[in-house]
Amino acid sequence: MLGRTMLRSLRVATIVAVLCISALGAITFRVRAQRPADDNPKREYARANKKPIEAYVVLLRLRQDLFLKWKDTGKWPDDKEANAALGGHSKYWAEQLKSGKALLAGGMKGDYWDNVAMIIFEAGSEAEAQQIVKGDPAVKAYVFQAQVRPFDVSYISDKYGPEQVKR
Description:
This protein is an alpha+beta fold. The chain folds into two domains: 1-36; 54-152, Alpha-Beta Plaits (2-Layer Sandwich). It contains five helices and four strands. It starts with a helix and ends in a 15-residue tail after the last strand.
């Protein structure tokens, strides 16, 4: 008789355990379903450059007299030749970007804005890189001093691929 009672108790306990587990599963499912969607899903970035990139960096420094006037007054100097050369500089590097040579460009910000900018671009050789930089109207007009150096590109993220960049 004791055996049947224990067996019945065991069956009841098993049924109660199964019901509890089922209830917990249903509650967990509801909680997960009610969570807001993750606005920042984890992204993975693959190596975008499949073969080595022959790249160079040009470090640009603004001509000292222009830089000092700008730094002292906080206003850009009224220098027509320099302004024309800088306009040409922007167009020139926009063409390099469009042709696929320019990879990245920008100037220092904050406490580091002290007269330095850089452009990373592709060229077949250092001689070709020098020629590309010498074609910059602001370099030709001595508005910028330029130093060209080989640049070892380890990888380029595809984070800002065409579907992410608004033009």
